[in-house]
Amino acid sequence: MSAGWRPAIVILLLSLVPSVALAQQGNGDDQAPAKFKSAVSLVSVNAVVRDRKGRFVSDLAQKDFTVLEAGLPRRILDFRAESDGPVKLALLFDISGSMRIGTKAVDAREAARQLFSTLRKSDEAAVFAFDTKLVRVTDFTSDFAALEKSLENVEPPYGQTSLYDAVAQTARVVADAGRGDGRLPQRSAVVVLTDGIDTKSRLTPEQVTSIASMIDIPVYVVAVTKTIDDPREADTERVNQISGALQSLSLWTGGDLFVASAPAHASIAARQIVDELRHQYVLAFEASMGGGWRPLQINARNRDLVVRARAGYNAGGDDIAKFDY
After folding, report:
1. Bridge partners (DSSP) listed for residue 78
2. Pair 226, 315 in one domain
3. pTM for this structure?
4. Does 139 share its domain with 37?
């Protein structure tokens, strides 16, 4: 991520002078970060903007956005238009027993390969697997041949599924991976490859959403469903089940949900996920005092444009510590 940004809610203690002075706005990674002369708690939000035809919009300025917190306008203190930079993906692979049914495990591995095929040498990815526990299969690397080979070691056991717990843990790992220099890589995301069935989690979808949103990690879910032999049949009940909690989890964190019942679906999902991470705006505003969940709404002043960003943050940043993984 561009110099000067910290994870979602960061505290910049540069001096004790009570006035606040803004640095000039930047439009790229080579611009100087905003500087503040007093203790300021900042919230940074990544946003993707599309037009009504689904095309990325990449020529907007700070004045083209509005930020509402609990319905009240917030002043944007700094703004960046990030384009075509490196991405960092954590692939979270469901290896629970339900993935043995049909070709779901095979289809999930193929979806992972599709994601790897969209990455560049400057990008990084890691592979995690879970049933009731989270396992780090590979560390973050740009060696995509090694990442693909690691998929051969991802085999479903007969365990139960702690889907939501695993998402929360992986989001935290991704955040920690960017803290070596005190910064969170801006284009980071968790991509979950699963059949959408959770049988063992201690955390609720709402709690996971809060955790991922607080550290500004979008969660993309690729829900692998069985291939329908008879095209006249419709797995409506299964799709509706997936589209409930998982869709809320993904959209509220600024990600998205894809239902893949064919290789072509996985290919489309892979391209869209990586394209979104390469076309982001970053907006920052001062965090509210006190603690608790604060709903956010990021809008473009042009009503023909659609903005997707996380739906809120936790003022105070204490929620992660409350959950014992």
Report:
1. 284
2. no
3. 0.76
4. no
